[in-house]
Amino acid sequence: MVSLELGGFQPESVTVDPSQGTALVGHVWNLEAIVRPEEYLTPEQRQVTWSVSDESIATITQDGVLTGLAEGSVLVTATAYNGVTGSTWLSFLQSQEPEYTLIPDTDSYTITENGLYQLPPHPEQLLYSHHRRSPL
């Protein structure tokens, strides 16, 4: 069995970087866990185990690579070998498709006094209107 308590120092705190954030679904974050007292711990003592609160929203590798899978927020936790943890909330949003409004060719509409676009009647409506007006 290997002891990770060299020199009597153990992890006292874990900080996850970034401390918060929001990105689009599909974004990949490279997270970092800062285990303190950093200067007194060996590389093995500074290793953490990563986890997320909801794997349907995001997944994380043991190297701290977080990938957004769906819209929502997850609590990401880094746990040191002695149980000390650090966490952060990260959120993912669905990308919004830009909304376009089709504006007809400028020769086919007029702008009214109140700034609205007014289209001429459709030719079929003109024909129908013509038949309705003529009682003969």
Write a compact overview of the structure shown.
The chain is mainly beta.
Care to describe what's here?
With 136 residues, the protein is mainly β. It is built from 1 helix and 11 strands. The chain has one helix spanning 123-133; strands at 13-17, 20-24, 28-30, 32-36, 48-52, 58-60, 65-68, 72-80, 85-93, 110-111, 117-118. A hairpin with a 4-residue loop joins strand 8 and strand 9. The termini are far apart. Mean pLDDT is 82; it is low at 125-136.
Q: Tell me the helix content.
A: under 10%
Adjacency order of strands in the biggest sheet: 2-9-8-5
* Head-to-tail CA distance between termini: 106 Å
Low-confidence stretches: 125-136
Based on secondary structure, the structural category is: mainly beta
CA-based shape: rod-shaped
Count of alpha and pi helical runs = 1
The major β-sheet equals: 4 strands, mixed
> In sequence order, what are the helices and strands, one letter per element?
EEEEEEEEEEEH
What's the count of strands?
A: 11
| Share of β-strand residues | 35-45%
CA radius of gyration? 31 Å
Mean pLDDT: 82
Keyphrases for this structure?
mainly beta; 8% helix; 136 residues; single chain
Structural topology:
Blueprint: E1 13-17, E2 20-24, E3 28-30, E4 32-36, E5 48-52, E6 58-60, E7 65-68, E8 72-80, E9 85-93, E10 110-111, E11 117-118, H1 123-133
Parallel strand pairs: 2-9
Antiparallel strand pairs: 1-4, 3-7, 5-8, 6-7, 8-9, 10-11
